[in-house]
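Structure first, sequence second, as always.
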């Protein structure tokens, strides 16, 4: 329960920052701060309206070179997973089978690795194999 309260407080704080400044990108909070803001948005699954708002703000920051494309790829997939459409970059894992992550449904699987490479993500096979490693989940 305590963790939920912290998540709600962090989400509320990030929502306020976004409303006042847009996405807290590198120019405002540095690389680590921008990535930490992404972590808050990425895990705000119970507040899909906020995730959509954050996705839009993050996309704007990425278009200006002020945030990481990789973070945008993960949040794009997370919002799509929560809304129902197929994910784009295969970052969200549905289950583990034979020691490898199996993605939530992905659009146009034949072009998945090309889309991943375009945003700095490793090929899906490598990501899937390493998914259970500490710090790799998103």
């Amino acid at each position: 329960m305590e963790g939920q309260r912290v998540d709600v407080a962090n989400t509320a704080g990030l929502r306020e920052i976004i409303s006042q400044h847009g996405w807290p990108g590198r120019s405002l909070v540095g690389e680590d701060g921008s990535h930490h803001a992404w972590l808050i948005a990425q895990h705000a699954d119970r507040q899909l309206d906020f995730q959509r708002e954050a996705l839009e703000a993050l996309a704007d920051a990425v278009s200006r070179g002020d945030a990481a494309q990789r973070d945008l790829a993960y949040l794009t997939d997370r919002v799509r997973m929560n809304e129902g459409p197929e994910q784009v970059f295969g970052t969200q894992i549905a289950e583990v089978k034979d020691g490898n992550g199996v993605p939530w449904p992905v659009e146009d699987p034949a072009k998945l690795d090309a889309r991943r490479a375009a945003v700095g993500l490793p090929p899906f096979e490598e990501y899937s194999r390493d998914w259970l490693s500490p710090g790799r989940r998103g």
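Margin note: The longest helix spans residues 2-21.
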